[in-house]
Write a structure and sequence with these properties.
82 residues, 5 strands, 0% helix, mainly beta
Length: 82
């Protein structure tokens, strides 16, 4: 799992049919409680907003966080950090 802060939304006019309707987020990664210069793009499964700190799962397990497990994704937001 990764930790990061949502910095923006990604708008895509054309995308795979399995992710139509999904919110795509740009996230700045956090390591040792410091924001890094690393970024990741992830599908939002929990309704996170800009400025919120989130948990991200990556790899083939990310698909399991979505209702359609055939969705071609590599990163999914699975939690909002309070």
């Amino acid at each position: 799992m990764l930790k990061g802060r949502v910095i923006g939304n990604i708008v895509s006019t054309r995308k795979n049919e399995n992710i139509v309707g999904s919110k795509i987020l740009e996230i700045r990664l956090v390591e040792n409680n410091q924001e890094t210069d690393k970024y990741i793009i992830a599908i939002d499964s929990v309704g996170a907003g800009i400025g919120e700190y989130v948990l991200i799962t990556t790899g083939s397990g990310a698909r399991l966080a979505l209702s359609n497990q055939e969705t071609p994704v590599d990163a999914v937001v699975v939690g909002i950090i309070d």
